[in-house]
Write a structure and sequence with these properties.
Layout (H helix, E strand, L loop, with lengths): L1 E2 L5 H15 L4 E4 L6 H12 L4 E4 L3 H15 L3 E5 L3 H4 L2 H10 L3 E7 L26 E4 L8 H14 L5 E6 L10 E2 L41 E4 L5 E5 L5 H10 L3 E3 L15 H5 L10 E5 L7 H6 L5 E5 L15 E3 L1 E4 L7 H14 L12 H12 L5 H11 L5 E4 L3 H9 L6 E3 L10 H13 L8 E6 H6 L15 E7 L17 H8 L6 H8 L2 E4 L3 H7 L7 E6 L3
Parallel strand pairs: 2-3, 2-4, 4-5, 5-7, 6-7, 9-15, 10-11, 10-12, 12-13, 13-14, 16-17, 16-18, 18-19, 19-21, 20-21
Antiparallel strand pairs: 1-8
Length: 571
C-alpha cells in the first residue's frame, strides 16, 4: 500500500515520517490532541487502521508521556509521543527527565509554528527547540515542509537519525504551515498482502541499539575509551549490589563469585540462592557490614541509606558496572573504578561468608506464626482462622500480599512511597517483572507508566497476566488523569492498589518530623480528603475497599476490568 500525495505538505511529510518509523520497527505511538499536530495525528490513526501501528490517545500530555514511558519500558523499543505546540510540550518534561535518567527510548515529536510566526506573539507559540535542555540526547528543529522536491526523503532520513540516536529520549520539533492537514487515501500496489496486526509484527531491526555505545562518559575518574571488562576473582568480604536497571546479570555474577546479593526489589535481580533481603539490618550489624571490603554495583540503587554509606566507608573498594543511564552511580564521589562489564575467573570455594549472610537474613525475616493450632478442637480452630482473616492490614501485610499474588506472567509496578521500601524489606526472592520509576524517583506518572506496561505486556498473544501497581494515596491523586480512558481506548487488566495512610507519611522519617508540629503536617504530610471510591466511580473503574487480610487476599484475585483497591493504613 502507498498513499497518494495530498495538497498538504504537512500531511505528506508526516506520512513519510511515520512510514519510515514503521519500517524501522517502531510500533507504538501516543498522542494528545491539538490543531498544529493534526497531520501526524490523523496519519497515525490511518496507520493504525492498516495494522501498522498501535495508537493510544490521552488528553493530558503528562499522562501521555508517562504512558509512552511504560510502553517503552515493557517493549524495550522506541515509542513516539506527539503533542501540539505551547504548554503541551512542557507537560512532557517530567517523563522526559525520567526517561533520560533511566535510558528509556522515547521519540518526542512536537508540532510548532514556522519561523515566520515565531517571536511575534503568535498564539500557543514559545521557544520549543531546547525546551528539554540536556534531558534529550538530540534535538532537531525542522522547517515547515512546502512541498519541495526531496522533502519525503528528508522525512525518512529524519526518522532514521532519530532511531539511531534514541538511547534515551530525543526531540523532533516539526514546524507546520497551513494547510495543516488534508484527507488522504491508501492505494494498493503490486504484491500487496494483508498486514499483520501491529501487536504481533516483528520489527525490521529487532535490536535498534546494537550500533550505539551505551557507556556514559565519566570525566572525573577515568578517560573514555573502548568498552572495558574487569576480571574478578571470588574472595570473602565481597557483596554484589543491584539497583534499578541491574537485570539478571547481577544475580549471575553474585552466584559466580559466591557473594551475598543485595538486590533491590525493582532491580530485576531480586531472586536466587544468594539473595539477602534483610540487608539493611546486616549492613548495620557487627561482623557483617563492617567486614565488607569490596562492593560490585549494578544498576542504580536508591532505596536505602545503607548502600551509599557502605560505599563511602574508608577501606571499601567499589566497582560500578555502568548501564546506559544519565549518570554513573558514585556516592560521595568515592568510586574509583567504572567498567562496562565484569567477568569471573575461578570458583568460589569458601561458602561461609555467603552462608552467614543468607541464613541470618532469613532468620531476621521470620515472624511468629499465626497459624491455628491443628490439635485444637473444631470451635477453637474455626475461631483462630476467623481471627486471621479479620486481621487489620498493615504495611508489611500489604507488601507481602501483593508480592505473593504476583507471578511471572504478571507485572508489578511500585510507586515512590513508603510501600516500595516495605516490599524491598520483606519480599522473598521471586523472578517476576517489577518496575519502578527510580531514575528520579518521583511520584508523578505512576499509574500512567503502569498502564503503558499493562497495554504492552497484554498485547502479546496468550498473555493473561494482570498488572498491579502499588502506590500511596498522594501518588494516585497526583496522577488521577491517568484513570481516564477515552472512547475506543483499550482497557487492560490492571489493579491500582492504594495504601491510604493519610498523606505523605514517608516524611515522618525526616529528622524534623517530631519537632515541627502542625506546620509539618501542612507542608509535608499534606493530607488529602478526596474520596478514592468517588474517583473510581467517576472514571469508570471497579472499586474495592480492603481493610482486613481476608478482604485483601480476595481483592487481589484477578479481575478483567480495571480495579482500584483501597487499603486503609495507619500513619
Amino acid at each position: 500500500m502507498t498513499i497518494r500525495p495530498t495538497n498538504s505538505p504537512a500531511t505528506n511529510f508526516s506520512v513519510a515520517l511515520l512510514e519510515e518509523f514503521v519500517r524501522l520497527g517502531v510500533r507504538d505511538i501516543v498522542l494528545s490532541p491539538g490543531s498544529r499536530s493534526q497531520a501526524i495525528a490523523l496519519a497515525a490513526a490511518e496507520f493504525e487502521k492498516q495494522g501498522l501501528l498501535r495508537l493510544r490517545v490521552r488528553i493530558d500530555e503528562r499522562v501521555a508521556a508517562f504512558l509512552a514511558l511504560g510502553l517503552a519500558v515493557e517493549t524495550g523499543s522506541p515509542v513516539v509521543v506527539v503533542t501540539t505546540s505551547g504548554t503541551a510540550v512542557a507537560n512532557l518534561h517530567p517523563a522526559v527527565l525520567e526517561a533520560h535518567h533511566s535510558a528509556v527510548p522515547l521519540i518526542i515529536i512536537s508540532a510548532d509554528r514556522p519561523d515566520s510566526l515565531r517571536g511575534i506573539g503568535s498564539n500557543q507559540t514559545t521557544e520549543q527547540p531546547g525546551i528539554f535542555g540536556a534531558a534529550v540526547h538530540q534535538t532537531w528543529d525542522v522547517e515547515a515542509p512546502t512541498g519541495a522536491v526531496g522533502e519525503m526523503d528528508s522525512a525518512a532520513q529524519l526518522a532514521r537519525e532519530a532511531v539511531a540516536a534514541v538511547n534515551g529520549p530525543v526531540h523532533l520539533n516539526l514546524s507546520f504551515d497551513e494547510p495543516l492537514s488534508a484527507p488522504f487515501v491508501w492505494q494498493p500496489t503490486e504484491n500487496d498482502v494483508a498486514p499483520e496486526p501491529a501487536a504481533h509484527r516483528e520489527p525490521v531491526f529487532p535490536d535498534l541499539f546494537s550500533d550505539l555505545d551505551p557507556v556514559v562518559e565519566n570525566t572525573t575518574h577515568q578517560s573514555p575509551g573502548a568498552p572495558t571488562t574487569l576480571a574478578l576473582s571470588p574472595s570473602p568480604a565481597t557483596v554484589v549490589v543491584a539497583g534499578t536497571g541491574a537485570g539478571a546479570r547481577a544475580e549471575q555474577v553474585a552466584r559466580e563469585l559466591g557473594a551475598p546479593l543485595i538486590a533491590e526489589v525493582s532491580s530485576g535481580a531480586h531472586f536466587g540462592p544468594n539473595l539477602v533481603v534483610a540487608y539493611r539490618e546486616l549492613l548495620n550489624t557487627a561482623n557483617f557490614g563492617d567486614r565488607v571490603a569490596r562492593v560490585i554495583v549494578f544498576g542504580h540503587p536508591t532505596l536505602s541509606r545503607e548502600i551509599p554509606a557502605l560505599i563511602q566507608r574508608r577501606g571499601v573498594e567499589t566497582v560500578v558496572v555502568r548501564h546506559p543511564s544519565a549518570d554513573d552511580y558514585n556516592p560521595g564521589r568515592c568510586v574509583r573504578l567504572f567498567v562496562d562489564e565484569v567477568s569471573v575467573s575461578g570458583e568460589a570455594t569458601d561458602r561461609a561468608w555467603l552462608g552467614r549472610w543468607v541464613t541470618t537474613s532469613r532468620q531476621l525475616l521470620e515472624t511468629e506464626s499465626i497459624a491455628p493450632d491443628i490439635d485444637a478442637d473444631a470451635g477453637t480452630h474455626a475461631k483462630s482462622e476467623l481471627a486471621i482473616v479479620r486481621t487489620p492490614v498493615d504495611r508489611r501485610m500489604l507488601a507481602e500480599a501483593v508480592w505473593r499474588a504476583t507471578w511471572p506472567h504478571d507485572r508489578l509496578v511500585l510507586g515512590a512511597s513508603r510501600l516500595i521500601r516495605e516490599v524491598d524489606r520483606v519480599a522473598p526472592g521471586k523472578k517476576i517483572s517489577v518496575h519502578a520509576n527510580r531514575g528520579l524517583a518521583g511520584i508523578d506518572g505512576t499509574i500512567s507508566t503502569a498502564l503503558g506496561i499493562a497495554l504492552a505486556s497484554q498485547a502479546e498473544k496468550g498473555n493473561e497476566g494482570v498488572t498491579r501497581v502499588l502506590l500511596g494515596d498522594l501518588a494516585i491523586f497526583h496522577d488521577v488523569g491517568a484513570l481516564m480512558f477515552g472512547a475506543g481506548e483499550p482497557r487492560p487488566r490492571i489493579q491500582v492498589i492504594v495504601g491510604n495512610d493519610g498523606g505523605g507519611t514517608i516524611f515522618d522519617g525526616l529528622e524534623v518530623a517530631g519537632q515541627a508540629g502542625e506546620s509539618f503536617d501542612r507542608v509535608l504530610l499534606t493530607q488529602q480528603n478526596a474520596s478514592i471510591e468517588a474517583l473510581a466511580a467517576a472514571y469508570g473503574w471497579r472499586y474495592i475497599s480492603a481493610s482486613t487480610r481476608g478482604e485483601l487476599d480476595q481483592a487481589l484475585s484477578a479481575h478483567p476490568e480495571p480495579t482500584i483497591i483501597e487499603v486503609p493504613l495507619g500513619r
